[in-house]
Amino acid sequence: MDLESVRDSLIRQEDTIIFSLIERAKFPINSWANAPPQNGVDGFPAPSFLHFFVREAEALHAKAGRYENPEENPFFPDDLPFSMVPSHDYKQVLHPAGSSINVNKSIWDIYFNKLLPLVAAEGDDGNYGLTAASDLACLQAISRRIHYGKFVAEVKFKDAPDEYGSAIRNKDSEGLMKMLTFEAVEEMVKKRVEKKAMVFGQEVSLNDEVNKTKENRKIDPSVVSRLYEEWVMPLTKQVEVEYLLRRLD
């Protein structure tokens, strides 16, 4: 793994995030799915139907070996069942002390309280199962992108061990954050994801005409740019700093 392969993966993950958000935008918020259950009415043992859905889905995915892959990080990691499929010998890239970093609680809060109201319209169409499945796809895509910061940090550390090592030994979180911040690159990423959202969200007709009016876009491109600027990139760098602080353990 090198910086070029990491960069290619991050760019491909942009596509996954944007398409998952476009799919989610087909449904209204459907707030019942994330509301506390009503006594005697809702029979699921969880803080909300969405909690129940995601937890049960992750249990199934765990049986299928999904979380054997170090790129995957569950939202409910406690008491996951063991994999039932043949194990795969994933190459150990990450330092063991930092591989368990998980910021999915923050991602969950940001997604439902800040991002989703910008993506989905107000309302309730009763499609709670489809909505939950779409929410899960968005959560997993965003989580994978943010936690990929562990791989980014590992590659950067190996490219400059002395430079990073000094800051790590001094527990210099601010210094590490400055070393990981490249404003020109971040600006380029924001512009790229906004342009992708504009292209992917267009209505295309059979006569090769593209409807580029704002009213016909499946998702607001500026929302995707804001997602990366305010949440994805800052949380990714937070993961990178936490990982590097454990890198010499």
Which features would summarize this protein structure in a list?
2% strand; mainly alpha; two-stranded antiparallel ribbon; 58% helix
Quick recap:
This protein has 249 residues and is mostly helical. Helix content is 58%, strand content 2%. It has helices at 3-24, 49-63, 104-119, 128-147, 149-159, 161-169, 173-180, 183-200, 221-246; strands spanning 203-204, 210-211.
- Count all strands and give the number: 2
Structural class: mainly alpha
Strand order of the largest sheet: 1-2
Question: Poorly predicted ranges (pLDDT <50, ≥5 residues)?
Answer: none
Radius of gyration: 20 Å
The total count of helices amounts to 9
Q: What is the chain-wise order of helices and strands?
A: HHHHHHHHEEH
> Distance between the terminal alpha carbons, to the nearest Å?
22 Å
**SS strand fraction:** under 5%
- Biggest sheet details: 2 strands, antiparallel
> What is the helix content?
55-70%
- Rough outline: globular
Average predicted local confidence, pLDDT: 93
